[in-house]
Protein backbone atom coordinates (compact mmCIF):
# COMPACT_ATOMS: atom_id res chain seq x y z
CA UNK A 1 0.00 0.00 0.00
CA UNK A 2 1.41 3.36 -1.02
CA UNK A 3 1.81 6.44 1.14
CA UNK A 4 -1.13 8.20 -0.52
CA UNK A 5 -3.40 5.23 0.18
CA UNK A 6 -2.22 5.12 3.81
CA UNK A 7 -3.04 8.82 4.20
CA UNK A 8 -6.52 8.21 2.75
CA UNK A 9 -7.18 5.38 5.23
CA UNK A 10 -5.99 7.50 8.17
CA UNK A 11 -8.19 10.41 7.04
CA UNK A 12 -11.16 8.11 6.48
CA UNK A 13 -10.74 6.54 9.92
CA UNK A 14 -10.65 9.98 11.51
CA UNK A 15 -13.83 11.04 9.71
CA UNK A 16 -15.67 7.80 10.49
CA UNK A 17 -14.77 8.02 14.18
CA UNK A 18 -15.97 11.63 14.38
CA UNK A 19 -19.63 11.80 15.41
CA UNK A 20 -20.53 14.61 13.00
CA UNK A 21 -18.13 14.18 10.07
CA UNK A 22 -19.18 10.54 9.94
CA UNK A 23 -22.79 11.62 9.41
CA UNK A 24 -21.84 13.99 6.57
CA UNK A 25 -19.63 11.38 4.93
CA UNK A 26 -22.35 8.73 5.32
CA UNK A 27 -24.83 10.97 3.53
CA UNK A 28 -22.52 11.53 0.57
CA UNK A 29 -21.33 7.92 0.34
CA UNK A 30 -24.63 6.17 0.93
CA UNK A 31 -26.74 8.33 -1.35
CA UNK A 32 -24.15 8.46 -4.15
CA UNK A 33 -25.47 11.89 -5.11
CA UNK A 34 -24.16 15.43 -5.23
CA UNK A 35 -25.20 17.81 -2.47
CA UNK A 36 -24.56 21.44 -1.63
CA UNK A 37 -23.79 22.61 1.90
CA UNK A 38 -27.31 24.07 2.03
CA UNK A 39 -28.86 20.72 1.07
CA UNK A 40 -26.72 18.77 3.56
CA UNK A 41 -27.70 21.23 6.30
CA UNK A 42 -31.39 20.72 5.45
CA UNK A 43 -31.14 16.93 5.45
CA UNK A 44 -29.15 16.72 8.69
CA UNK A 45 -31.03 19.56 10.40
CA UNK A 46 -27.85 21.45 11.23
CA UNK A 47 -26.67 25.04 10.63
CA UNK A 48 -24.96 25.67 7.29
CA UNK A 49 -21.92 27.17 9.04
CA UNK A 50 -21.34 23.92 10.95
CA UNK A 51 -21.80 21.88 7.76
CA UNK A 52 -19.41 24.15 5.82
CA UNK A 53 -16.68 23.63 8.44
CA UNK A 54 -16.92 19.84 8.34
CA UNK A 55 -17.38 19.66 4.55
CA UNK A 56 -14.22 21.73 4.12
CA UNK A 57 -12.34 19.35 6.43
CA UNK A 58 -13.59 16.31 4.49
CA UNK A 59 -12.67 17.93 1.17
CA UNK A 60 -9.20 18.90 2.44
CA UNK A 61 -8.69 15.28 3.49
CA UNK A 62 -9.62 14.14 -0.03
CA UNK A 63 -12.65 12.15 1.14
CA UNK A 64 -15.15 14.28 -0.78
CA UNK A 65 -14.73 16.38 -3.88
CA UNK A 66 -16.33 19.39 -5.49
CA UNK A 67 -18.26 18.24 -8.54
CA UNK A 68 -19.76 21.53 -9.73
CA UNK A 69 -19.64 25.21 -8.88
CA UNK A 70 -22.31 27.69 -9.86
CA UNK A 71 -23.51 31.16 -8.94
CA UNK A 72 -26.61 31.10 -6.77
CA UNK A 73 -28.10 34.37 -5.52
CA UNK A 74 -24.79 36.17 -5.90
CA UNK A 75 -22.80 33.52 -4.04
CA UNK A 76 -20.86 30.55 -5.30
CA UNK A 77 -22.55 27.24 -4.53
CA UNK A 78 -20.48 24.10 -4.64
CA UNK A 79 -21.84 20.60 -4.92
CA UNK A 80 -19.98 17.71 -3.34
CA UNK A 81 -19.76 13.98 -3.85
CA UNK A 82 -17.83 11.28 -1.99
CA UNK A 83 -14.45 10.53 -3.55
CA UNK A 84 -14.13 6.98 -2.31
CA UNK A 85 -15.81 4.22 -0.41
CA UNK A 86 -16.99 5.07 3.07
CA UNK A 87 -15.66 2.04 4.85
CA UNK A 88 -12.35 0.57 5.88
CA UNK A 89 -11.52 -2.90 4.62
CA UNK A 90 -10.04 -5.60 6.81
CA UNK A 91 -6.58 -5.09 5.32
CA UNK A 92 -6.81 -1.29 5.74
CA UNK A 93 -7.89 -1.68 9.38
CA UNK A 94 -4.32 -2.70 10.22
CA UNK A 95 -3.36 0.97 9.76
CA UNK A 96 -5.87 2.21 12.33
CA UNK A 97 -5.28 2.14 16.10
CA UNK A 98 -7.59 -0.22 18.01
CA UNK A 99 -9.26 2.51 20.07
CA UNK A 100 -10.11 4.41 16.88
CA UNK A 101 -11.50 1.24 15.26
CA UNK A 102 -13.68 0.75 18.34
CA UNK A 103 -14.94 4.34 18.09
CA UNK A 104 -15.72 3.83 14.40
CA UNK A 105 -17.71 0.72 15.34
CA UNK A 106 -19.66 2.65 17.98
CA UNK A 107 -20.41 5.53 15.61
CA UNK A 108 -21.56 3.18 12.82
CA UNK A 109 -23.75 1.24 15.26
CA UNK A 110 -25.19 4.49 16.66
CA UNK A 111 -26.11 5.76 13.17
CA UNK A 112 -27.51 2.36 12.18
CA UNK A 113 -29.74 2.23 15.25
CA UNK A 114 -30.88 5.81 14.56
CA UNK A 115 -31.87 4.75 11.02
CA UNK A 116 -33.78 1.75 12.38
CA UNK A 117 -35.52 3.89 15.05
CA UNK A 118 -36.58 6.38 12.38
CA UNK A 119 -38.02 3.58 10.22
CA UNK A 120 -39.88 2.16 13.23
CA UNK A 121 -41.36 5.56 14.12
CA UNK A 122 -42.35 6.16 10.47
CA UNK A 123 -44.05 2.75 10.37
CA UNK A 124 -41.87 1.48 7.51
CA UNK A 125 -39.68 -0.99 9.42
CA UNK A 126 -40.57 -4.61 8.69
CA UNK A 127 -43.44 -3.69 6.38
CA UNK A 128 -43.84 -4.47 2.68
CA UNK A 129 -41.32 -5.40 0.03
CA UNK A 130 -37.67 -4.69 0.61
CA UNK A 131 -37.07 -6.03 4.08
CA UNK A 132 -34.58 -8.59 5.17
CA UNK A 133 -33.71 -9.19 8.76
CA UNK A 134 -31.46 -12.00 9.85
CA UNK A 135 -29.28 -12.67 12.83
CA UNK A 136 -26.49 -15.19 12.46
CA UNK A 137 -24.20 -16.83 14.96
CA UNK A 138 -21.67 -19.55 14.53
CA UNK A 139 -18.16 -20.68 15.23
CA UNK A 140 -15.44 -20.32 12.63
CA UNK A 141 -11.74 -20.98 12.40
CA UNK A 142 -9.31 -18.40 10.95
CA UNK A 143 -10.00 -19.53 7.39
CA UNK A 144 -13.75 -19.32 7.97
CA UNK A 145 -13.42 -15.86 9.47
CA UNK A 146 -11.44 -14.70 6.43
CA UNK A 147 -14.09 -16.16 4.11
CA UNK A 148 -16.97 -14.46 5.97
CA UNK A 149 -15.10 -11.14 5.98
CA UNK A 150 -14.56 -11.42 2.22
CA UNK A 151 -18.29 -12.07 1.69
CA UNK A 152 -19.23 -9.01 3.75
CA UNK A 153 -16.78 -6.79 1.89
CA UNK A 154 -18.02 -8.05 -1.51
CA UNK A 155 -21.64 -7.56 -0.45
CA UNK A 156 -20.93 -4.01 0.68
CA UNK A 157 -19.12 -3.21 -2.58
CA UNK A 158 -21.97 -4.74 -4.61
CA UNK A 159 -24.62 -2.71 -2.75
CA UNK A 160 -22.59 0.48 -3.18
CA UNK A 161 -22.30 -0.26 -6.90
CA UNK A 162 -26.10 -0.57 -7.14
CA UNK A 163 -26.57 2.75 -5.31
CA UNK A 164 -24.16 4.43 -7.74
CA UNK A 165 -25.90 2.91 -10.76
CA UNK A 166 -29.28 4.11 -9.48
CA UNK A 167 -27.91 7.61 -8.89
CA UNK A 168 -26.56 7.70 -12.46
CA UNK A 169 -29.83 6.50 -14.02
CA UNK A 170 -32.64 8.82 -14.93
CA UNK A 171 -35.21 7.20 -12.67
CA UNK A 172 -38.64 7.42 -14.34
CA UNK A 173 -40.71 5.91 -11.56
CA UNK A 174 -40.69 6.34 -7.85
CA UNK A 175 -37.58 5.55 -5.87
CA UNK A 176 -37.36 4.07 -2.41
CA UNK A 177 -35.02 5.17 0.36
CA UNK A 178 -33.50 2.10 1.97
CA UNK A 179 -31.23 1.56 4.91
CA UNK A 180 -29.30 -1.42 6.08
CA UNK A 181 -26.19 -2.50 7.85
CA UNK A 182 -23.60 -5.21 7.63
CA UNK A 183 -22.29 -5.92 11.10
CA UNK A 184 -19.78 -8.61 11.86
CA UNK A 185 -18.23 -8.90 15.28
CA UNK A 186 -16.83 -11.47 17.63
CA UNK A 187 -19.66 -12.82 19.73
CA UNK A 188 -19.90 -13.84 23.31
CA UNK A 189 -20.99 -17.24 24.57
CA UNK A 190 -23.50 -15.51 26.84
CA UNK A 191 -25.55 -13.85 24.08
CA UNK A 192 -27.20 -16.83 22.49
Describe this structure as you would to a colleague.
With 192 residues, this protein is mostly helical. The protein has one domain (3-191): Winged helix-like DNA-binding domain superfamily/Winged helix DNA-binding domain (Arc Repressor Mutant, subunit A), CATH 1.10.10. The protein contains 6 helices and 3 strands. The chain has a 3-stranded antiparallel sheet. Helix 1 (3-17) crosses helix 5, helix 2 packs across helix 4 (48-60) and helix 3 (37-44) packs across helix 4 (48-60).
Topology, element by element:
Elements: H1 3-17, H2 19-31, E1 35-36, H3 37-44, H4 48-60, E2 64-72, E3 75-82, H5 98-122, H6 142-168
Record field, number of beta strands:
3
Cα gyration radius (Å): 18 Å
SSE order, one letter for each helix or strand: HHEHHEEHH
> What share of residues is helical?
40-55%
Structural class: mainly alpha
- Mean pLDDT, nearest integer? 87
Coarse shape: globular
Biggest sheet, in brief?
A: 3 strands, antiparallel
CATH class: Mainly Alpha
Strand content: 5-15%
At the third CATH level, what is the topology name? Arc Repressor Mutant, subunit A
Distance between the termini: 39 Å
In the CATH hierarchy, what is the superfamily? Winged helix-like DNA-binding domain superfamily/Winged helix DNA-binding domain
Gross CATH architecture: Orthogonal Bundle
Number of domains: 1
Number of helices: 6
Trace the largest sheet across and list its strands: 1-3-2
